[in-house]
Structures are given as structure tokens and as C-alpha cells.
Design a protein that fits this description.
single chain, 153 residues, alpha+beta, five-stranded antiparallel beta sheet, globular
């Protein structure tokens, strides 16, 4: 999976609506819809944005909160990309938080993804990337999102 040639939503004038996503995702749309229904319980707002460098629409999941002192904060918790017949969700962690991510309530398969994820960038971070066609990985994604909210607020 993750073939950049399969990346969809490449027309800036075509906003990702439910109808557009149903057409592109096909049978995977059910998993997408289930994920969308979980977001309010996770206190996440998802926004679609056009990114010129990639020439594609990406969705960013953000958590917004107010500190005890009244400061408004926001944190990006995941990035969602749409491909032909599937979508991906990438949850990025700082390298210093790898142990906390490994201690999240996730499956052994996801723990392998966390262990094997390569560190990138000047400020060491790593992505845990899920390629989704069914609802099966959604519980692990939600657990990692909750983990990231706790350790990085």
C-alpha cells in the first residue's frame, strides 16, 4: 500500500464531501464513516485542507482545549490521506514518547508498528501509519490518539 500514485483527492476545486469520499473509498467508506463517528467522543475536530506541495487534500485531526490559566491550545493528533479504495491515518509521536506509545492499549501488531517506525526530522518524531480498508484497526488508532492527547498536552 501507500503508493503515491494511488493518492486521490488531487483536484483543489473538488472539496472532499461524503459523496466524493464514497466514490473514491468504495467499500472502505464504512470504515471511514465509523472513524468519523468516533471523533466527537475523542474531542477531535477533523478539517480538510488543500496542500499545494503534495497537490492533494489531507485531513488533519485536532484537539483543542483551554488550560487552567485560560490559554487556548490546539494539537494535531493525526493526518488522514485518501487513496484509491483505502485511506491512511498517521499518528506522529516524539521519539521521547515511544515508550508511552508502546504502553498504550493496542494490539501486538500495532506495537510492532511502533517499534519499527523510523525516526525522522530535526526534532525526532516517528509516524505510526495505518492503512485502512476495514474497521478492525480503528480501536488501536483511537487508543493511540488518546495516548498522544495525554502525553503531549
Amino acid at each position: 500500500m501507500n503508493n503515491s500514485e494511488d493518492l486521490r483527492l488531487r483536484e483543489p476545486e473538488v472539496t472532499p464531501t461524503s459523496e466524493v469520499l464514497k466514490q473514491v473509498l468504495g467499500g472502505s467508506y464504512t470504515a471511514y464513516e465509523t472513524f468519523q463517528h468516533a471523533l466527537p467522543n475523542l474531542e477531535i475536530e477533523q478539517k480538510w485542507q488543500w496542500y499545494t506541495p503534495h497537490k492533494a487534500w489531507f485531513a488533519r485531526g485536532q484537539h483543542r482545549w483551554t488550560t487552567q490559566r485560560g490559554t487556548k491550545k490546539e494539537k494535531t493528533l493525526y493526518w488522514l490521506h485518501v487513496y484509491e479504495k483505502y485511506f491512511s491515518v498517521a499518528v506522529w509521536f516524539k521519539e521521547k514518547n515511544r515508550v508511552e506509545a508502546l504502553n498504550a492499549d493496542v494490539s501486538e501488531k500495532t506495537k510492532h508498528l511502533i517499534r519499527d517506525a523510523r525516526t525522522m526530522g530535526k526534532m525526532p518524531t516517528f509516524p505510526v501509519v495505518f492503512y485502512i480498508t476495514t474497521t478492525k484497526p480503528l480501536a488501536d488508532i483511537c487508543s493511540l490518539i488518546e495516548c498522544k492527547k495525554r502525553i503531549e498536552e
